[in-house]
Amino acid sequence: MNSNKETAIEADAKVPAIRITRDFAATPEQLFRAHTDPVLFARWIGPDAMPPRIVYWDPRPGGSWRYVTEHEGVEYGFHGCFHQVRPDRIVQTFTFEGQPDGVALETLTFETLGERRTRLHAQSLCDSFEARDAWLASGMESGVDQGYAKLDRLLADGAV
Amino acid sequence: MNSNKETAIEADAKVPAIRITRDFAATPEQLFRAHTDPVLFARWIGPDAMPPRIVYWDPRPGGSWRYVTEHEGVEYGFHGCFHQVRPDRIVQTFTFEGQPDGVALETLTFETLGERRTRLHAQSLCDSFEARDAWLASGMESGVDQGYAKLDRLLADGAV
Predict the structure, then answer these.
(1) DSSP assignments along chain B, one per residue
(2) Residue A19: closest C-alpha in chain B
(3) Fewer CB in 10 Å around end: N or C, chain B?
(4) CB B88 within 8 A of CB A88
């Protein structure tokens, strides 16, 4: 059975959040590992052309993380804290260092759909609709799609 | 010159946030210390009847914090991470452990108004209007007022 390879990316109508929904041929535990193990995470996150380098990564409640990517000689940084880390739910903060005062609150939940199928729900909460809409308009969708496609391949290869 | 002792607590009309505004007879540096030094923080935060005990507190970006209070034999816990810590701006996550899946993103900014007068802007961003409204309806306002009154006294005593 193939996973649903369509990533749904929606702007919430009521709150300044982006909601992403994506199904994987995986268990919840595999998705949890993919999002918390830094070696695994670095193998799939983001656009194919911009593999990240993990600078630090402590995936426990109260821990923090940072990675950098590079494109055409320019380095881009991302960092945040892990607020909650549970097998079915991760809450973390997220800042793109190109906008150092911007911060989103990310909530990831892993919903089992049955035999080795899990639905990822990812909510990115911004503090204004302007910030949310600018993020959506920034071209983030292709990077998200490419990342999940790499994760599909890692799962299929038994690497997670 | 007296500080404005009125705390303004407002529900944002557009986003699920609570906005608190309060003036202090203080410099921005004093308000920053009051919010980041755990010994000072514990002397003013919250209702007078519920002094907190700091369990851990690392006020650096990527650090985490937790404190507990007690009322009529029941212990209440609060914890989060410090996402950003700058002299004019602090961003942290906040969970009340009575609702362990609830989390707010708190942004505190310290705006100088001139000679030893500073305006605190505190924004608490929730992920739903229901959560925001329930928090407002919970009686949090008197605890906020009592806390700021204690901070006024600490400032007047030269303790900050």
Answers:
(1) -----PPEEEE-SSSSEEEEEEEESS-HHHHHHHHH-HHHHHHHSS-TT---EEEEE--STT-EEEEEEEETTEEEEEEEEEEEEETTEEEEEEEETTSTT--EEEEEEEEEEETTEEEEEEEEE-SSHHHHHHHHTTTHHHHHHHHHHHHHHHHHTT--
(2) B127
(3) N
(4) no
Closest Cα of chain B to A54: distance in Å?
15
Confidence band of B139 (pLDDT split at 50, 70, 90): confident
| Structure confidence by residue, pLDDT tens digits, B7-24 | 999 999 999 999 999 999
Gap between the Cα atoms of A30 and A145, Å rounded: 18
B101 vs A contacts (CB less than 8 Å): 84, 89
The domain limits of chain A are 7-48+83-156
Bridge partners for A64 per DSSP: A81
What is the CB neighbour count within 10 angstroms for residue B142? 10
C-alpha B17/C-alpha B8 separation (Å) is 14
Element (H, E) at A90: strand A89-96
CA distance A102 to chain B (A): 10
Both tokens of A160, joined, read: 């997670």
Q: For residue A31, what is the DSSP state? A: H
Please name the residues in contact with B99: beta carbons below 8 A apart, sequence gap of 6 or more: none
ipTM above 0.90, yes or no: yes
Q: CA of A100: which chain B residue's CA is closest?
A: B84
Residue identified by tokens 């409640």 is: A61
Per-residue pLDDT tens for B118-131?
999 999 999 999 99
Give chain B's mean pLDDT: 95
Give me the amino acid identity at A147: G
Q: Which residues make beta-bridge pairs with A122? A: A20, A108
